[in-house]
Design a protein that fits this description.
five-stranded parallel sheet; 132 residues; alpha/beta
């Protein structure tokens, strides 16, 4: 199982994104390996909002309709509270509540690899997915 971050979802959606080609290669490889793609609903909301603001409503709706391709962890009240607590105690200003939630989901599920273009995943001790 590989965790999928907003940075990867957006790179897939936007042909002008500098990571678009790499994201497509990564996705093809992940699918060829039969890898399950995990994300959580906060990432989906963030990605859909970003796609809508930058690319328009139609691509955002396509993304929303295709979200069933992911194994989705629905953030519980308990998980939300845990992420907020970590946000309150983090010294790293750039870590968002969504990133902190992602790290918790990955740790809770034992996922070590992230399909992401956000180096914060590597700083947290996760492996950024790369094609073989």
């Amino acid at each position: 199982m590989t965790f999928v971050d907003t940075s990867a979802i957006y790179a897939l959606a936007d042909r002008k994104d500098p990571n678009h080609e790499t994201a497509q290669q990564h996705l093809r490889q992940l699918l060829a390996e039969g890898e399950e793609l995990l994300t959580h609903n906060y990432v989906l909301v963030e990605a859909i909002s970003l796609v809508q603001s930058r690319l328009g409503a139609a691509p955002a709706v396509r993304l929303a309709n295709s979200s069933s391709q992911f194994v989705i962890e629905w953030v519980s009240e308990e998980l939300h509270r845990e992420a907020v607590d970590r946000l309150a105690h983090t010294a790293r200003r750039r870590l968002s509540l969504i990133d902190l939630t992602s790290f918790l989901v990955m740790r809770h599920r034992g996922v070590k690899s992230a399909f992401a273009f956000d180096e914060d995943f590597a700083r947290e001790g996760f492996r950024l997915y790369e094609t073989a």
